[in-house]
């Protein structure tokens, strides 16, 4: 397997007028092509900071990030970013929102538009293409955001707690849809979440971050049986509960030190 992402010795210090915050310190990890990795850790441990650095939105204070062999110097179409909020434009239709990424990178050809319609179809949204975001449920809006992210055909998908604003049922359905879609398209993904179950159900590997400053605490490789299931079914497997307890203890350790 070849490497899709390398994060090397990354440290981020935020400097404001009042203070300097060491957000993450000496982060080192790599993601293989096609791998699904989750970063978990408590609020404020630097998860969003790391994703912003990998997306090229923040230049790290120290260290380098490489995506598909090239050093990250700024935002690029090689990386797609999906957030907790969908950031759909309320005055644009679903189809026009889904085409947004292609439009701003001036890549919207007739063929690509056809691709977007196909993705909307895959996500069960084709019948809603002429609707406006306010007419859709939260889960549907996140599916539109996923289509918009996939439309530019990024090699790497960064997912920053994309399900945390959704109700539990919708979240479970979307987990399955995302995993099935990314597996079928052989995409590399890095998911940030504070939900241990979600991380186990969706990933090939979990990286646990320690807070203040964010550092890598431990890595867990997800057993094959869980990986080859869709997230909903994975939650039923005996290994799932064993792993949940192990990671839960790891978090417990953080709180009691
Ligand atoms: P997480 O996503 O894990 O909740 P963040 O990456 O958002 O964590 O934040 C990590 C730390 O960096 C926190 O202490 C936060 O207050 C601080 N931080 C994040 N963004 C900024 C910023 N733009 N300026 C100053 N401090 C920041
Ligand atoms: Mg965050």
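Q: What amino acid sequence fits the structure above?
A:
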């Amino acid at each position: 397997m070849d490497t899709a992402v390398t994060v090397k010795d990354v440290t981020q210090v935020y400097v404001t007028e009042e203070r300097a915050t060491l957000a993450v310190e000496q982060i080192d990890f790599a993601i293989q092509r096609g791998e699904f990795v989750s970063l978990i850790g408590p609020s404020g441990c630097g998860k969003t900071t790391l994703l912003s650095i990998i997306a090229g939105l923040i230049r790290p204070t120290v260290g380098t990030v490489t995506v598909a062999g090239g050093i990250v110097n700024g935002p690029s179409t090689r990386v797609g970013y999906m957030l907790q909020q969908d950031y759909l434009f309320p005055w644009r239709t679903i189809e026009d929102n889904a085409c947004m990424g292609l439009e701003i990178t001036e890549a919207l050809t007739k063929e690509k538009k056809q691709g977007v319609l196909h993705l909307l179809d895959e996500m069960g949204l084709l019948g809603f293409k002429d609707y406006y975001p306010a007419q859709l449920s939260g889960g549907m809006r996140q599916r539109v955001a996923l289509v918009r992210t996939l439309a530019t055909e990024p090699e790497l998908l960064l997912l920053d707690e994309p399900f945390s604003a959704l109700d539990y049922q919708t979240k479970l359905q979307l987990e399955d849809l995302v995993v099935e879609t990314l597996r079928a398209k052989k995409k590399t993904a890095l998911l940030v979440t504070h939900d241990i179950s979600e991380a186990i159900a969706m990933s090939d590997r979990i990286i646990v971050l320690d807070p203040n400053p964010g550092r890598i605490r431990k890595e867990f490789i997800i057993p094959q049986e869980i990986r080859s299931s869709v997230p909903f079914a994975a939650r039923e497997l005996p290994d799932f509960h064993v792993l949940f307890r192990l990671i839960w203890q790891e978090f417990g350790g953080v709180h009691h030190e």
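Q: And what stands out in the fold?
A: The chain has a mean pLDDT of 94.
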